[in-house]
Design brief:
Distance between the termini: 78 Å
Protein name: SPW repeat-containing protein
Oligomer: single chain
Helix content: over 70%
Largest sheet: none
Keywords: Membrane, Transmembrane, Transmembrane helix
Strand content: under 5%
Number of domains: 1
Transmembrane segments: 29-47, 53-72, 84-103, 162-180
Order of helices and strands: HHHHHHHH
Length: 199
């Protein structure tokens, strides 16, 4: 009986590699969430054609908090921690001010709403990348790069969606044509051969 329990316990315990992978994913979770929220904000803006001003400001502040939390354990001393807080605060206030300049009504009239969301995402990506460089944090710098890469990817998808739709229609049309030809070809259908034998 005790051997069966020991075997069950051994089967239920995670392997060290699995535990390391889970720990690694748990550490990367804030960066993954920030990237998903940034892409979701652009997608929602493109679908609704309404700018999400507060959303981008919240996201910038959240990434600023993540920057401070990421570097906090590596900073020793009260003075160094205060320096970390106020330098990151100045950095993200500059990003927020730049974002709000893009949302001024005079500038807003020059850009359509989807373009505004892409510009705000670009500013957020630049701010995140520069914060990662100044903090010597590869995760934050990579998050900024990933956000920056999504900007041309989203605009490319918007421009090429018509080509994707035309390609899908073409493939469906070709598929239907070949399927109908296969049904009509002589000798392929047993009903055709039966009717020929009766004649």
């Amino acid at each position: 009986m005790s051997e069966i329990r020991a075997e069950r316990n051994n089967g239920m315990e995670p392997s060290p590699a699995h535990a390391r992978m889970t720990h690694f994913l748990w550490q990367q979770l804030p960066y993954i969430i920030a990237l998903v929220l940034a892409v979701a904000g652009v997608a929602y803006t493109n679908a609704s054609h309404q700018p999400l001003v507060g959303y981008w400001e919240f996201l910038a502040l959240a990434i600023g908090v993540v920057c401070v939390i990421n570097k906090w354990p590596e900073v020793d001393g009260k003075e160094a921690r205060w320096r970390l807080i106020w330098t990151q605060a100045l950095h993200w206030v500059a990003v927020l001010v730049t974002m709000n300049i893009m949302l001024v009504s005079g500038v807003q009239q020059l850009l359509p709403t989807p373009a505004t969301s892409l510009v705000l995402l670009t500013l957020l990506a630049l701010g995140t990348f520069l914060a990662g460089v100044s903090l010597l944090s590869p995760q934050i710098a990579f998050l900024g790069l990933a956000m920056g890469v999504t900007v041309p990817a989203i605009s490319w998808l918007q421009q090429s969606i018509i080509f994707f739709l035309l390609g899908a229609v073409l493939l469906i049309g070709l598929g239907i044509t070949f399927w109908l030809r296969q049904d009509r070809s002589p000798g392929s259908s047993p009903t055709d051969t039966g009717s020929q034998m009766e004649a």
